[in-house]
Give the backbone structure.
Amino acid sequence: MNANGIAVTVEEPAPGQFFWVLEQQQRVRAAIERAVRPMPSYGLAVMAGISALERRTAAANSLCARGRVDVSARDFGPTTIAGCL
């Protein structure tokens, strides 16, 4: 799942221990948030990661709705999306 350049991935550092990770997708992937405790299955880790991504997106949208997010006036070309997503 991807929302605004953030991907949900799952890591299994030890058998049966699944951790969700939110990664910023740029030239180099960088973890911006990760699970504190392991989940018992891959599917549960994916669902927990999606929930974390939805919370992050909802928080960003509520800040935008209150006018707390600055929108750049610079024109970056025809693919620029202005305002809140």
In short: The radius of gyration is 16 Å. The longest helix spans residues 42-65. The chain has one domain: 2-65. The helical segments are 42-65.
